[in-house]
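Hi R.,

Here's the chain you asked about this morning:
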Amino acid sequence: MSENKGKIEDLKRKLYDPNYDESTSYRRGALREQRYDVKDEWDKPKTEEMPNKNKKIKTSFFKKFFILSIIFFIGAVGYSAYKFFLDDSTVSGNKIDLEIIGSSFTKGGEDLPLEIEITNRNSASLESASLTIEYPKGANDDSEIIRLDKDEIGTIKSGETVIRNIRVKLYGSEKSIKNIKASLEYRPEGSNATFAKEKYYPVTISLAPVSLKVEAPNSIIANQTVSIKITTTLNTTQPSDHLVLQLKHPSNFIFETAEPLPMNDNYIWDLSSITQTTPITIELKGKLMGQTGDEQVFHAYAGTLDNNDTSKMGVVYSSILQKMVIENPFLDIKVLVNNQDQEEYAVKGGQEVSVDITWKNNLSSSINDAEIVAKITGNILDKNNIKETSGYYDSLNGQIIWNKSTLKELESIEPGGTGKVSFDFTPMSLTGLSGIKNPQAVISVSIKGNQPLYGSSFSNIDNFTEKKIKLKTDFQVASSLSYLTGDLPPRAEGNTNYMVTWTLSNSTNSVSQALVTASLPIYTDWVGFVAGTKENISYNKEKREITWKIGSVPPGTGVDSNREVSFIVNFKPSISQVGLSPLLIQNISLSGTDSYSGAQVGSTMNNLYISSISGASAGEGNGRVSN
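And the predicted structure, written out as tokens:
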């Protein structure tokens, strides 16, 4: 270690010391010659004792069985390969030629003749051979297929060729591809196994039998009337005597009118009068509801109806779809009735209705000279009960007008600018009225303005919305009480029988599922309904509840016709009730569904006391309990 250190220190002085003296440097020791003894041949390693290869190793029974199994399996696979590839007596599907010969193009709805050629190149026969042909039923959905009757060919001998001629009708849009499928089922000679060979033949529709064209906007504004025109053109001979058009529309599409009108509620039109020179155009109008950005799809089909369900298409010859995107209007308007944003409202006659109209400029530029017009129509309006704010009510034309002369902020609406105007009206009361059919008020609100463009030019911006307010029918039940038998006035711990009569009244709309319920206090017992009563009235003793299942009630009941029921109760007062007028019937409730407005109608009536007695027995003191 010290020797190595001396060498390093000497090297440092040589590198960095300017006064380094070579004579003082560290001296290495002198080299000496060393001799090595190299042998002439390699040393032979010691021989290790090797195991005796001739020594027999015992093989277990399971190992021998496993080896034999592998040998048998390899032999079986080899034999099968030989039989399949080399033995001519084996039937192979590769040696069966199944060809479809005919035109690769056809007009939709016209007969397409095809030739099916089957050749057996196997050395053995094909037994129990049968041919099946399948192809799409219509133009719209290839999952519905037509299967021709199975052709039972029988035996196809070795080298034999069998030819079959068929005709098919394909439907689809122009340039669409339809696949015809031929399936051959057979059993190899001497075998019970059944095999199949398939062949697909693509055919291009060169011309659809019926063409559909839709004229409609790609984008619309919600709640705005949209027109959709569908033109049907016959390109070939008419494929059916019962050709129809069906339109499937979004669930939020509100139908208004159509020309011509559809045959039924499933939007199906008869096209039997169509010819190659006379197309048929159908135009329908309606409104689409939804949110901005919603994509709605209309789908039109031409074809024949399903024989089992005439609301569905059976065979579709052609179809087309039209997409519409709901967009924001340039000048948005919203109408709230009683602070609710709905298309239809149900209100009670004689009660005030508040209407708020809000607007918003969705443009990036101002809208000038805006004007709002609210037109109010209907058969339940009272012109004297319409009150507006910041506008002008034109009673002659039944409309309220707001513009820059009545409201300064309508002179110019800045980008993103909003505002609101309001009015109130009170529809007439329906109590005691009859003969008014479908009582309603319709509020139609329009807003328009000018969008300044370059120079002095401008474009008109407008929007329109409509709300329908339906009046609920005035549906009520009245209770009356009359004395029958027993103590009068009622005596403590005695018995008095009363007859209760319920009488219905209904003004303008039919009512369905009508029902009256009530309950008896603990000191009143149910006796029964009056003899001859045909109404469905019952009593639940455990709940002490009376139920009158009325059902349907026509308008004008109580004015043009009567509907009532009577029943008997027994009153047994206690000494603690002396001097009082206890109630006989409590929790009287009437309910039903207004068939026109769809709203629930009815009311909870006042309790019935013994003091409510009417008729000749309604003397002073007869309405209180005595000793």
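The chain has a mean pLDDT of 86.

Let me know if you need anything else.
M.
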